[in-house]
Amino acid sequence: MALTRRDFVSSIAMGTVGAGLADAAVTGGVEARQPMRAAKLPIIISAGNGIPYIGAGYQHLLEGGDTLDAALRVVQGPEDDPNDDSVGLGGLPNEEGVVELDACCMHGPTRRAGAVGGVRNIKNVARLAREVMQHTGHVMLVGEGAERFAVARGFVRENLLTDASRKVWLLWKETHADWWGAGLADPAWKEREQQRLHTDRRLQYYQQLQQVAEDLGIEPELRQAAIHHVLFPPTGTIHCSALNAKGEMSGVTTTSGLAWKLPGRCGDSPIIGAGCYTDQDVGSAGATGSGEENIKVAGAHTIIENMRHGMSPLEAGMDALKRIVRNYNGDMNRIKYLDMTYYILRKDGAYAGVSMWTGYEPDQPHAIAVHDGRPRREKTVSLYEGVSQEWPPMVAPSSALL
Ligand code: GLY
Fold first, then answer.
1. Contact 253 CB / ligand 1 (< 6 Å)
2. How far is the CA of 1 from the centre of ligand 1 (A)?
3. Confidence at residue 11, expressed as pLDDT on a 0 to 100 scale
4. 237 catalytic residue (yes or no)
5. Bridge partner list, 367
6. What atom of ligand 1 comes closest to residue 290's alpha carbon?
7. Which residues of the chain have pLDDT under 70?
8. 17 and 234 Cβ atoms separated by less than 8 Å
9. Is the C-beta atom of 118 inside 6 A of ligand 1?
């Protein structure tokens, strides 16, 4: 993990810790963005956490496989990995301790889409979204209906809550459960901001969290990440877009969504046009980050339409980020709490990764994984330097901790 304990504790004290540790599982270096050059086909891109699996997707494209199959091979890696707590098995649960998964996909050649939201007990929801696309006349199934459809299609029900994720949920439950109340877009929100803890109290609070984590039996080496997840509920997700040598394209996005969410909350990932959009005539795009913000700008669709009207992938993504900023009238007191990354692939193979914030430099910047014959992670181009701040703000903890 790139952020040292000392960095983390001092960041807590300064109130400067933000998103970024969600990518801690990603290993290997991150390259600077490649200068624009002639694109090579096939090509496959994903969120940074797809790097261990992107080779399998690329190989499938080389062998003439379907572009959606290739993208599914990449995202199934984190879905199956119990140690990736942002997707599939081991994903961080909702406020009641139940893992609920969201996913959607689009198949460019047949211009079809499938999506599932709030699915319990089924691990590979990206593949389930494809089943909805292929085996129903619908586009989206949610909740119990989606789970029953999965079982009918041969998926196996399993407990998705690992012991590690359960303990982090308990840590949140005991110390920080405060989702309810005014959201960032609410006029009442400023009053909530005034409740932020002063620096000395933040450090004291961090030490109290350490104690509760120890009492819960969270291993010492996992405590820092657990506390980070409590203070900064992650929205970790994976998107993947693939383009084969014939010019066919597909995209898929899958997630366990915002940690500690209210049961039934769906973010952007299962929303066609927000978490993922593919248009065989133009390109494919997807998102990770603040789902609520991305839904409001229909981010992936906005990017594709921008490219349809002549913007480059980079310009198209930056415009979508600026629409989020516009929704807050440029108020940095609020925008500092948001983060968003877009992964963009144009039909000719040109690509871009853009994000609201850089993330942690130099080791944990927001990154896009790319494979066009050479697998690599590249830094995204960011609208703002730095890291986003914790959300919800560190308000006074429950009296039990004081
Ligand atoms: N972007 C994932 C979510 O907000 O659920």
1. no
2. 23
3. 47
4. yes
5. 379
6. 4
7. 1-28, 34-38, 177-182, 188-200, 390-402
8. no
9. no
Q: Is 104 helix (H, G, I), strand (E, B) or coil?
A: strand
Q: Write down the domain spans for the chain.
A: 1-76+163-245+257-264+278-402
Q: Is 351 helix (H, G, I), strand (E, B) or coil?
A: strand
pLDDT for 39 equals 75
The pLDDT assigned to 32 comes to 77
Residues sharing a CB contact under 8 Å with residue 182, sequence separation 6 or more, in sequence order: 188, 189, 191, 192
CA of 14 to the centre of ligand 1 (A): 27
**Residue closest by Cα to atom 4 of ligand 1:** 291
The two three-digit tokens of residue 176, written as one number: 């920080």
Helix locations, 239-346, DSSP H: 291-297, 299-308, 313-327, 332-335
Amino acid 401: pLDDT: 45
Q: Is 288 in the pocket of ligand 1 (CB under 6 A)?
A: yes
Cα distances (angstroms) measured from residue 1 to each of 125, 126, 251, 289: 28, 28, 29, 20
**160 CA → ligand 1 middle, Å:** 18
Q: What is the pTM of this model?
A: 0.88
Q: What angle do CA 46, 263, 401 make, to 5 degrees?
A: 100
Tokens of 23: 């990518």
Cα–Cα distances in Å, from 273 out to 113, 114, 128, 163, 349? 10, 12, 18, 34, 20
| For the CA of 265, the nearest atom of ligand 1 | 5
Q: Pairing mode, if any, of strands 237-243 and 43-47?
A: antiparallel
The answer to whether 86 touches 99, Cβ cutoff 8 Å, is no
The domain defined by 1-76+163-245+257-264+278-402 folds into Glutamine Phosphoribosylpyrophosphate, subunit 1, domain 1 (3.60.20)
| Block residue for tokens 């460019």 | 108
Instruction: Pick the closest to residue 392 from 118, 91, 182, 211 (CA basis).
Output: 182
> Which amino acid is present at 234?
P
Kindly state if the Cβ of 235 falls inside 6 Å of ligand 1: yes
Give residue 400 CA to ligand 1 midpoint distance, Å.
31
Residue nearest to atom 5 of ligand 1 (CA): 257
Three state DSSP letters for 193-215 = HCCECCHHHHHHHHHHHHHHHHH
**How far is ligand 1, taken at its centre, from the CA of residue 292, in Å?**
7
Cα 398 to Cα 63, 140, 394, distances in angstroms:
56, 39, 11
Q: What type of residue is 99?
A: V
Catalytic residue among 162, 175, 237, 358: 237
